[in-house]
Structures are given as structure tokens and as C-alpha cells.
Amino acid sequence: MTGKKSNNGLMVLAALLAVVLIGTIIYTVTLYQDKVKTEETLTQEKGRVLESLNSLQSEYEKAIMESNATNEELVEARDRIAKYIDSVKAMKADIKYLFRYKNQVAVLKRERAALMRKVDSLTQTNTLLTSTIDSTLVEIEKQSVFRDSLIVQNTQLADAVRSGSALSISKINVSGVKVRNSGKMVETARARRIDKIKICFTVNNNKIATAGDRKFYIELLDPQGNVMGEKTPIEVEGKPVLTASKMVGFYYENANLDVCDFVIKPGDGFQKGEYLASIYDDNLEYLISNKFTLK
Fold this sequence. Notes:
By secondary structure, the protein is of the alpha+beta class. The protein is built from three helices and ten strands, in the order H-H-H-E-E-E-E-E-E-E-E-E-E. The longest helix has 71 residues.
């Protein structure tokens, strides 16, 4: 009798455990299903937030492209939305953060509406200004035509004065010289005897030229076309660089003036052949040249 009661107790306990197990399984399955459903809902909400942010970004892109000038406020708002998009993409499906971003989207939409109204107002103002500027430009163009006409006349007058006041050379003479012990210089055309090459020229009188210290440049080329002498590079804006053999300084007094200078013998002496001497003024304008031959 006692064994029968014991068996009945075990059966009752087993039945209770079975009920608990079944209940646990049902509860677990229900929780899992709820979790899956919640995750799907959050994922959908996350997609809607991204869709709203992408739409806002597209509207800003369009507004920036249609703007005549870069609007820093629009660019800043677009860039800020791009950062929100990156953050939402990287975010896990979390209800707390998702609602925060949904609220932020609402704020961004209000901000976008305010900015668009501001941009429209600026556009209208710019249109009015453009109309005013166009009429002003027409008047300025008229004044510019008159001013340009005066500039052309003044330029032509200045060019005429500058051209008329430029110094010129009427003749040039080039010769080789031998310096004797007494200091006397004797002209010679024999290359092996020459100590220097003498270049002389006559500066013509010019009454409208400015009197005072002036300088010309000598370029002496040997038979191979190489520059002889000091080989100093001379630069004047707008002109090719001149490698000068010698700079010749003189004082001009608005009258004919004979000027002479020398290019000394190089280390290996003068060669036989044809030489070319050219003279340039202080603005590197070519004046005159002369060829001569050493035997």
C-alpha cells in the first residue's frame, strides 16, 4: 500500500515538471518571436530614418547647385546630415538611439525649411541687385569707352615722346689696339698683337632727351658667336636678357658725344676671324652694330 502511494506521488511530480517544462518552452519561444519582431521593427525604423536623412541631403545638394554663389550655411547643413547618415548606418538597432535620431530628423527638417526661406529671400535680393548692377554696368561701359579713348591718346602721345627722346647712334668704329710700354695705343688688325678691342661710337644730339648720366651696353661676339668681356647679364622687364661684354657710362648734355671703351684680351688671346660689336641703350633697345676682322 505504501509503495502504491509512492508511485502516485512520483507521477504527480512528473506531471508537474512536464507542465513547467512545456510552459518554459512556450515562454522562451514567445520571447524569441518578440525579439525577432522587435529587431525587424527597429531595422525598418532605422531604414526610414536613413531615408529621411538621405532625402534632406539631396534637397541641400539641389539647393547648393541652384545657388548662384556658394552658401556656407547650406554646405554646413549638408555636411552635418552626412555625418548623421554615417552614424545611423554604423548604429546597432537600439530603441533609445533610434528615437533620438528620429527627433533629430524632425529638427533638421525645421532647420531646412528655415534655411530655404532665407535662401529664397537672398535670391530675390540678388535678382534686384543684379538688375541694378546691369544698369550701372551700362553706364560704366559708356564711361570706360571714353576713358579708353583718352588712354589710347595719352599712350600714343607718351610713346611719341619716349620715341622722340630716345638716344641714337650715328656711327660706330671697332678696331684692335696694341698698348706699348709708353702707354700709347696703336691700332692693328693682327690678332696675335692685340691687347684690347676698342669700340667707339657717336651719340647724336637730341634736344628733348633728358640730360644726365646715361649708360649703354656693348655686346662683343667672337668668331664662334661667344660673348666676350665681362659677360654680365642685364635684365629689363619685357625684354630678353642681354649678356653684356661691357657697360659704358657717360654724361649726356643734349649734344653730339663721342664715346669709347675697351674689351680686354681674354686669357687665350684674340682669335683670327670675324667679330661683331653691337650697342644697346639702357632699355636694352638695339641701336647699332659693326663687323670687323682680325688676321
